[in-house]
UniProtKB/TrEMBL annotation:
Phylogenetic classification of the source organism: Bacteria, Bacillati, Actinomycetota, Actinomycetes, Micromonosporales
Keyword Signal tagged: yes
Molecular function per GO: hydrolase activity
Keywords: Hydrolase, Signal
Gene3D superfamilies: alpha/beta hydrolase (3.40.50.1820)
Keyword Aminoacyl-tRNA synthetase assigned: no
Protein name: Peptidase
Amino acid sequence: MTVPLDYAKPHGRTITVAIARSRGADATHRIGSMIINLGGPASPVRDSVPLARAAMGATGERFDLIGMDPRFAGRSTPVDCKWPAYWLPRSAGADRAGFDAMVALNRELAGRCGPAEQRLLRHASTANMARDMDMIRAALGEPKLSYLGYSQGSYLGAVYTQLFPRRADRMILDSAIDPVLSGTRVLRDAAPRREAGLREWAAWAAARDADYELGATADEVLATVRRVYAASARRPLVVGSYAVDDTLVPALIVTPLTEDTENGELAAVVRTLARAADGQPVEPSGEMAATLAGLVDGVGSATHTAQTAILCGDAAVSRNPEAYWRDIQRHRASSPLFEPLARTITPCSFWPYAPAERPINVYNSTPALVIQAEKDVNSQLPGAQALHRALTGSRMIVLAGARTHGVYLFRGASCVDEAVNAYLASGRLPATDATCSE
């Protein structure tokens, strides 16, 4: 698809947005087209369409499924600042040295985006992604567009309902975020629930001390985590070929913490880090190595560039590093591990331009179905509830007791999948909000 680079100049420079379409087999009962977004923001989706088709079953066959690689990501018009490392989800660390290292890193990353990249990236935003979606709808000849979006994709769907309320059909917003906390602010309040998730995991690990040797009680397991974090601040831990400092340890922990099905992986990560803190030679597991490669080796630089540009384009942030330091210091005591991660400085503080438009104020009565796991540590329940309130015509289903990110089709929770499929088939939202269990 060819779309305007700048929607304020619709006849000016253009870019391409790559899409994949899988036609539904049930043409007799066809409903329309559905765009799928996996969040990120800027996660490429084009190659995931066959997986979505297989997962959705008979209900999905009534839709043409559309995977859109967001502007500047995947196979869309590319942009890449050639970043040697990545800032998300790196922490500001345990002390001023860690914070200063993050300031230097983020200043360097922003500075690597030269004039050619800047001409594109100044037009990266969720609002422009929503406008791209409507261009696709029009090109397909659809009067309305259905949508399935996860995480940051829930915000994209909400923005679409605000900009194009009469063109929104079935809207599924899964693992939703507070539309007021757009841009890099989205995780500012994440630390308390991440602490709760870590304590829940610590109890699980303590019950398996014979397997992981992290501590016989939850408090002992948490003490092991604190010991690792403190050691990494004194001297980077040697994990294979990587030097893991206090800006990386929280990222390595929060990645598997996202899913309660990854409890064993998190225990393996902490055990590896604990042995490294004791001076033992260790190698990272496959998942741990992949996380480190993305954060330290610059793997995925193009996607990371696009993700950052969208976050920076969605909302202005303070450009004063000391403001971040003071904020971290005010909150550090309540969660030494996760508050510096949630409140860290980002490249947006050094971005070469301000957002082109103000954040979209989401408040409308467009029908939508909000799906949320109760204990999600990334897109958290209060944020999903805020989105539900902002979309006054929406309904909400909460999966009780689950610590997961991405529920419909990913979790295998029949109570959620059946409710979503019924809405997709009929176009009628559930009569009331609901909480259900797996």
